[in-house]
Amino acid sequence: MSSLIENSPVAHQYKSMIESFYPYKSFNQAQEQLHDLVPIDYFLAKELTITLFIFIGSPNSVFTDAEVSSEVPTNKEDVSLLFHLIIAISKAIRAGNSCLPLSNIAGSRFCFYASDNGIVSHNGYEFPLIVPLKNFLSSLALTPDKNKAIVVTEQALYLRRYYNFEQELNDFIADNQTNTRLASRFASAAIVQCLNDLFKIEGTNNCVDEIDWQKVAVANALNKRLSIIAGGPGTGKTYTVTKLLAAIVSLNSPEALKIALVAPTGKAAQRLTESLLNAISGFKGEIASEILDKIPYQAQTLHRLLGVIPNKVNFRHHQDNKLTLDVLVVDEVSMVDLPMMVRLIRALPEHCQLVLLGDADQLPSVAVGNVLADLAPRPHKGYSKANKSYLTEVTRFKGFKPFKNNAYDHITFLTKSRRFDSKGLVGRIAELVITGDATKSWNLLAEQEIPALLSLNINQWLPQLVKQYYLPLAKCEELSKAFSLFGQFRILCATRVGLEGVENINQQVEQILYNSGNTQANNQFYHGKPIMITQNDYGLGLFNGDIGLVWTNEKGMLIAYFEQPNGEYLTVLPSRLPSFESVYAMTIHKTQGSEFQHLVMVLPQNKDSKILSRELLYTGITRAKKGLQIASAQSTWFQSVDTQIKRYSGIQTDTNEH
Ligand SMILES: Nc1ncnc2c1ncn2[C@@H]1O[C@H](COP(=O)(O)OP(=O)(O)OP(=O)(O)O)[C@@H](O)[C@H]1O
């Protein structure tokens, strides 16, 4: 609260009055009434309620009685309503939403809970219907332009911080839609020639009906400052972006462009580097070597690009210290949260071309936002007249669906999986799960010849898998072989705790290793132990989620080795490691950006676990390159496939729709 209020006797008086109107005297009392309340919800409401009722002027403004009283409540009900609204916003943000839609709470009994047998444990709080709710909110004048911590729009309530982030992103999208900036940079004839070279279409002027969306993605990205290439696993996003980079390099030749490639995590950056190297080497003979030589492949993390400042949320690069870049490719965008995306766009110079890649069906970011799904809404409704004619001219494809405006012009969806045999188990299960078909997906798992459904008793299958994949780790002759063996297989869990959680399964694996002859496996550190960092250490350059192996060096010392995106190892003395854990099993969340030849996914027997969703299953399933096995009760599987994650936001790709 501002000192202006603290120092004002009038404000003091009002403050005491409002506090006396608070609906609860303590967190414990609130917790008895409201189901699933955590301290942050309660204390945020306690802190903000006062500041919203009392006008907070700028330091130079004169604080008068009139200004205070115009917005100060005269009754307990209003204070209670605002208090509960702030709790509701806090809960919505904890669930990853950037806002709280008013229609979600109006007329509802909030935080009410009754057990299956009807016993009410939490009475909750009843919100007014939409009209009185809106009237109340407009009396508080929580408009975007007033400097208050809560913002109310026509549809939703926001914490100002997230409202501002969303506005910045909306402005960025709108600005790129009206001004693509790159549109006139290259002559169409040059683009046509370049696309024909890359996609091997002999110089024909005839239009073709069957659209190659990879070619469209390249053409589409070439004339836009912002473009999104979205698609499921193996649909060729990296393959396509490699061709895009080839096109950019060749069209800009001889000018040398500054191009950066990033991903949200170290593992994802490493995978992007590997995939780009594979793609580049696959194009030898097809694309001129002087072009291939100029395509960058070394990816880094988003944090590293922006420049982490230890213990600060801000980065070295921002609106006043922009990146020196001409092209930026961001992979695995589904993992990027709203604040991070905004920090990234703030740091981009005006002319920099931004290409976003990702799979919007995967789990959204851990923190607030569902940026990729919001920026690339589905279904794709079609291209504007101008974009349609540009695409037809340069790709020679016809039949693009028309749309009344340019809202979807920057988006290309790739749908054909090139990695999974669409008739193979992984591809089919992933498709059935994400489209919500619990019965068919379960039946498909049940009918596999090589069992895809494992017993719920992990002792029945874990020892054999440990002996196959984990026991040989310590016996590998070289560290690189151990990393490659470790990358073959992983146990994925939905939860950390419980019988089917990461913690228990890691313990079980170490016990099996010990019983099978690895007598070091009950030590904190031992040769061949895989570990995952669980806390950022900017000094060491280790980040939450980084995976390493403890290995004996040539001097006989145990050292933790971490593979870097450039193929080198970061080495750290075990005693200097930030907090870490064993990683034979890891949560599905943490596997985003990774893939394994064979995986086992273990789901909790408690089907009511809040974490379960079809996106969680899909993310887990699509980490498997080949072998997929699942240990789940049928009820858990059905519950998960039937639950779809919905995150609310006000990000608008199509402003005319709202
Ligand atoms: N048009 C194509 N012709 C031949 N092979 C292709 C084509 N497109 C993609 N591929 C191959 O399919 C595989 C998957 O492609 P890629 O790695 O680019 O997919 P991705 O969408 O980036 O996958 P992920 O989501 O897992 O990162 C690669 O081996 C790639 O070479």
From TrEMBL:
Looking at its record, which EC class is this enzyme?
isomerase
Looking up PANTHER family in the UniProt record yields: DNA HELICASE B, DNA2/NAM7 HELICASE FAMILY MEMBER
- Cite the record's note on assembly: Heterotrimer of RecB, RecC and RecD. All subunits contribute to DNA-binding.
Ligand binding (ATP): G231, G232, P233, G234, T235, G236, K237, T238
SUPFAM superfamilies named in the record: P-loop containing nucleoside triphosphate hydrolases
**Keywords on this record?**
ATP-binding, DNA damage, DNA repair, DNA-binding, Exonuclease, Helicase, Hydrolase, Isomerase, Nuclease, Nucleotide-binding
Sum up the protein's function in the record's words: A helicase/nuclease that prepares dsDNA breaks (DSB) for recombinational DNA repair. Binds to DSBs and unwinds DNA via a highly rapid and processive ATP-dependent bidirectional helicase activity. Unwinds dsDNA until it encounters a Chi (crossover hotspot instigator) sequence from the 3' direction. Cuts ssDNA a few nucleotides 3' to the Chi site. The properties and activities of the enzyme are changed at Chi. The Chi-altered holoenzyme produces a long 3'-ssDNA overhang and facilitates RecA-binding to the ssDNA for homologous DNA recombination and repair.
To which species is this protein native?
Answer: Thalassotalea piscium
Checking InterPro entries in the record gives: Coronavir_polyprotein_1ab, P-loop_NTPase, RecD, UvrD-like_helicase_C
Name this protein carries in UniProt: RecBCD enzyme subunit RecD
Q: What is its EC number?
A: 5.6.2.3
**One cellular component (GO) term of this entry:** exodeoxyribonuclease V complex
Catalytically driven reaction(s): ATP + H2O = ADP + phosphate + H(+)
- Top-level division of the source organism's lineage: Bacteria
Which molecular-function annotations from GO does this UniProt entry contain? 5'-3' DNA helicase activity; ATP binding; DNA binding; exodeoxyribonuclease V activity; single-stranded DNA helicase activity
